[in-house]
Amino acid sequence: MSKKLTSRAEDYSKWYNELVVKADLAENSAVRGCMVIKPYGYAIWEKMQAELDKMFKETGHQNAYFPLFVPKSLFEAEEKNAEGFAKECAIVTHYRLQNDPDKPGKLRVDPEAKLEEELIVRPTSEAIIWNTFRGWVQSYRDLPLLINQWANVVRWEMRTRLFLRTAEFLWQEGHTAHETKQEAITEAELMNNVYATFVEKFMAIPVIQGLKTESERFAGADETYCIEALMQDGKALQAGTSHFLGQNFAKAFDVKFANKEGKQDYVWATSWGVSTRLMGALIMTHSDDHGLVLPPSLAPNQVVIVPIYKSEEDLNAITEVANGILSDLRGKNITVKYDNRTTRRPGAKFAQHELQGVPLRIAIGTRDLANGTVEIARRDTLTKEVVAIDGLNDKIEGLLAEIQESLFNKALDFRNGHITEVDTFDEFKTVLETKTGFISAHWDGTNETEDKIKELTKATIRCIPLEGEVKEGVCVYTGNPSKRRVLFAKAY
Amino acid sequence: MSKKLTSRAEDYSKWYNELVVKADLAENSAVRGCMVIKPYGYAIWEKMQAELDKMFKETGHQNAYFPLFVPKSLFEAEEKNAEGFAKECAIVTHYRLQNDPDKPGKLRVDPEAKLEEELIVRPTSEAIIWNTFRGWVQSYRDLPLLINQWANVVRWEMRTRLFLRTAEFLWQEGHTAHETKQEAITEAELMNNVYATFVEKFMAIPVIQGLKTESERFAGADETYCIEALMQDGKALQAGTSHFLGQNFAKAFDVKFANKEGKQDYVWATSWGVSTRLMGALIMTHSDDHGLVLPPSLAPNQVVIVPIYKSEEDLNAITEVANGILSDLRGKNITVKYDNRTTRRPGAKFAQHELQGVPLRIAIGTRDLANGTVEIARRDTLTKEVVAIDGLNDKIEGLLAEIQESLFNKALDFRNGHITEVDTFDEFKTVLETKTGFISAHWDGTNETEDKIKELTKATIRCIPLEGEVKEGVCVYTGNPSKRRVLFAKAY
């Protein structure tokens, strides 16, 4: 914690990696591409989980748990899905170790303990869940099934980065089954909306809702809805996706139901997920060269109180005042910590709380005791003010709400200032080189053009926005007719 | 749900398996030995998690998350631990599938994508966590580390049973590091106490706290504390364990710290865990031939209200009354569901709620409307009474508390009635054949005698109790001196 953080201007990527580790959010582990989520980082994730879980339950979903492993024969049943994930599957082939006859004290895989059928560590759970749903659905009375699972999944990614892309990550995956196509589409849209609301309201990150192009869709989906956010370096980040799966999985796993007319039909499906990747979005949207900046809604400690004292007598007097403040704030459901560690000096505590993004810091010194005041430092603006203890409660409550709103507005201004409409491919390339951010451009709707633009610029179509004006035009690359502008960007 | 449950007297094991499936708690999956935890079962587990998590945090622990995989070289570092789990490890050897050249449309493991080092799917996380702790501890100022993880683990068990023994299960595992031996022992004892409190208070299951014998200890532990419960069939169930790990893992992973005198020393460790196995204990302790019986503290719905009506007009009138009750009960933090499904008749609803163990059922019919009454049915005693709506709130609250207490007392009476002191090996065998339960007997303290008794009777030493009178005697099998009685039983 002693060495200063690399600045964003100097090396954005290095800044991010350093910040994640120094703020005690996560670190790399001995397992390639797998991270350790440290207590402080996990406390933020827990807050995110709690809010999301509440929103899922309020929209009628129930949690359940399905196996970590998917037998290969089930995994390959939905061909597009299997093809999409085949290249990044961790595979269990054996179930026992034995003493290595050649190396005393070492173990080796017991060659006799080979599984009859390999097990895939779930990269996503459609296959195992749809194989289960077959037993749960007989008639329309059993529908809809509205299931969510909190779980770990594994995708053997070649290039990994803490939170943003890891071989193992934590997520939630919703899996639902419906009577009609329209119901399933409505569900997929609803959950994309839930994600947008969560990310904007709690994470203070503005998002654009849209549809993915065919080539960017989830493997096995008929339509993928997404929320896209913009990071401070001008790169986009897909923050959540919600898929309308049509009857693809129902057909692959033979999940039929008797409809109201008594006829057998395949059910309609959705799946949707957000992951610990959101932690990366949270960090990159708000943080600065001093460290993490957290929206109060998700901060493990919204307020920290640091006593500044020379004698034990002073400390006792300060502690008495601090206890009053603590109990007042807790009464308002504000999470507050009294940092009275004797192993650290106030300066070191200030530095730590700044680095870890505690929204408000209250310092209480002996002079404050005499004056009936405290010093409040605001993490997002790095400003300080001396205020009276009298009325502190409301002051703090107001400030927390103000910070939450201000972080969102700042991110919104930045995002809106980084959507550039272009009409020529030269402009397109210039924006990518100079300003970055989202590029709003016409596209002819073909995979070929999308691929070509990606190949030439590394920019991909982040989404076909669901809102905003829809106007026809001509493709920025081919000059062919285009129905509407789409959003391109370089992305995480 | 139409077919009656097998009775406990008829076939206890079959009764259990049927109940788990019919009450919608869990089912077997397509993966050998792995279960699907269904929404109703998962809702109970979530309640257990919430209470435990609160207790862990109140005792100063923080949650974190560590990788699912353990590289083989780390896994084998602590030899006893490795030896203990080697025979039940799922092992990842490859990281990619490819199209099978011999079978169009099928996938196979890509032989080129072999991992340099095999990865063990964690059966428990000491190895990966202690390898991480090395980087977290430099000085005594960094201690204690009080970490907990909620996770899935895999143990390739040959004989599995829903909840009780599954290849994959959900659990929490606490891992702590301390300055001194005594501190670590105190922690291990504290957490065993936390488990006992949780299981008795929330699950309404009486437990005996004790120590495991050397041969029953956790692999890698110097001492294992446990809580042991007794099921209705007279078999014991280990409900939770807390281990004092000495410096074994610190030495295996070289985790040293500078102590207050500035000298380097290995840290002292504990680990402790409870799992979805507790669901099995919950089911088997209280349930009866009619289905599940749940303690109100853990019931997803503590109360269910069923309207009994002929006309829609009646239903509307009943719903109005029901809504008042719902809002009153919710105001008291009682979870209550209004079962107004039109797809099921009242009889079918009664049967379902009985099978699923809802503690209290309120039926409201048209006659009740006229009389200002409702009918309350109590699941544990299967008794019914008609009571006035006036004052219903307090009545329900009182009944829920009474049920919670009554379930515990009933289980306690049963348990206490099934601890038999024996002084000869003949008595020992007779009790096992006739009465079962715990057998309190003298044992000479040797592994040999313990093994021999196990071989002859299938009974194992469940624990050396931490409480109760300690009197010397002679071993029930060898006649050699014994320091105190221990508890034997056949066990799950």
From TrEMBL, chains A, B:
Q: Which SMART domains does the annotation name?
A: ProRS-C_1
Broad class of the protein's primary localization: cytoplasm
Q: PROSITE patterns under this entry?
A: AA_TRNA_LIGASE_II
> Which residue numbers delimit the Aminoacyl-transfer RNA synthetases class-II family profile domain?
27-295
Transmembrane helix recorded as keyword: no
Q: What are the record keywords, sorted?
A: Aminoacyl-tRNA synthetase, ATP-binding, Cytoplasm, Ligase, Nucleotide-binding, Protein biosynthesis
GO molecular-function terms, A-Z:
ligase activity
Q: What class of enzyme is it?
A: ligase
Does the record's keyword annotation contain Aminoacyl-tRNA synthetase? Answer: yes
**Where's it found, cell-wise?**
Cytoplasm
| Catalytic reaction annotation | tRNA(Pro) + L-proline + ATP = L-prolyl-tRNA(Pro) + AMP + diphosphate
Q: Name one Pfam family in it.
A: ProRS-C_1
Domains: what does the record tell us?
Consists of three domains: the N-terminal catalytic domain, the anticodon-binding domain and the C-terminal extension.
For this protein, the record's PANTHER family field holds: BIFUNCTIONAL GLUTAMATE_PROLINE--TRNA LIGASE, PROLYL-TRNA SYNTHETASE
Similarity field: Belongs to the class-II aminoacyl-tRNA synthetase family. ProS type 3 subfamily.
Q: Give the protein name, as stated in the record.
A: Proline--tRNA ligase
Question: What is the source species?
Answer: Algibacter agarivorans
Biological classification of the source: Bacteria, Pseudomonadati, Bacteroidota, Flavobacteriia, Flavobacteriales
